[in-house]
Amino acid sequence: MADANATSFAxxxxxxxxxxxxxxxxxxxxxxxxxxVSLPLVxxxxxxxxIILTVSLRFVNLRGFRHGWHLVFNPREHLDASxxxxxxVDGEISHFQALSAALSGTVGLGNIASVPVAIALGGPGAIFxxxxxxxxxxxxxxxxxxxxxxxxxxxxxxxTLGGPMxxxxxxxxxxxxxxxxxxxxxxxxxxxxxxxxxVFQVNxxxxxxxxxxxxxIPIIFGVIMASGVAYIILGGIKRIGGAAQWIxxxxxxxxxxxxxxxxxxxxxxxxxxxTTIFESAFGLDAAGGGLVGALINGMRRATYxxxxxxxSAAIAHSAVRTNEPLTEGYVALLEPFIDTVVVCTLTxxxxxxxxxYEPYLFNPDVVGIEITSAAFESAFGWFPYVLxxxxxxxxFSTLVSWAFYGSQAAAYLFGPSKRTDVIxxxxxxxxxxxxxxxxxxxxxxxIDSMLFGMCIPNIIALYLLLPELRRDVKAYEAKHAF
Length: 482
Hints:
- The protein is 74% helix and 2% strand.
- By secondary structure, it is mainly α.
- It has one domain (7-480): Amino acid/polyamine transporter I (Up-down Bundle), CATH 1.20.1740.
- It has a two-stranded antiparallel sheet.
- A hairpin with a 2-residue loop joins β1 (31-34) and β2 (37-40).
- α11 packs across α19, α11 (218-233) runs antiparallel to α20 and α19 (383-414) runs antiparallel to α20.
- The longest helix has 32 residues, at 383-414.
- The radius of gyration is 22 Å and the shape is globular.
- The relative contact order is 0.22.
């Protein structure tokens, strides 16, 4: 009865918000017909920015790749130039913890569900364009995270406040557009707060749970997930970073290890799968959806998965312990590589080599996670349970990171008081606890619109700060000679 009442209540909310949701979605996801395929302009906005940043920063995603890994595992000690003694360092978490916290926000159910959707709608060639989009996205992550550290605020008690809202406001102030800069930063913060209500993650994690176990316990499931999120986020970024440094590697090893096992079991099919990907990517395979379908769907899902250019991960990276902002830029560029080039590619490969995507080709109603689950089940009958555990970890980690992003945005809007922080986090967790019990399509569309609305002021600020960032990169690389 409780579930029925919740569903009825949800239907009323859904019906009430549908006009507003449709209006906002129509603006943010305004699409044009490109050779018969719907192309959201926000995807063009993100991809073009990533390409421009890559070229302008002289392919920092390649030149700085090795340096990024070095900083993660061998963080630079900050010493006083005259005495050689260690100097105080601003920030709250290590490079590894910052990377883990940001990855926990991007490596989520999108890696499990969105990739099969891209293949179903655009053919196997979507994987090629997804990898390419992830490659360029590395430069966008570098730029926004380096700038977020440079323009963060450090409170008297040592806590940090950071994110694109601070460098958005700063760059407009320099141009004498103080009011416009404040409005743009507030817009970004409001969008971030809205996007932090990730009810989709709870809903889809429970859907996989119910599908595998046969148990439908949405209220209990939602309360358990929200309670775990509350425990971690109420401890602040230090507890979030500490939890993420264990959760992210665990779920990564579990999912990547399982995917590699499936690939090993299908080794003879891998060469043909790779051939299919390239033929479909360039429109040589009529069954693959053609060049345009593969390109658009691959790049669209890659931008959705990595969030490069959206500015979300910059909030987590801004809490890093460093006095050299660019170091976190190099660490951050590893994020789209791990999220898109590695995890998304593995998902795509297991879906293709097992052939489970074929019945779903060109089905606009495909959900995605059922295709990945079928690929897992093709290896062992019990493997969907492994996927279930991985999907719960993916969803949980995303909820934790986005709760932190939302709380930082709230702190920017309402002030960094601990009372405001606790109220926001508890309210958010209450909303998340209902996510498994109800299916609010309009709210989910509205939240997605807020997520991608963040990229509008963020990318404008990145363009305006690009000359400054180029000078900083040149000086840093001359100093450290790598």
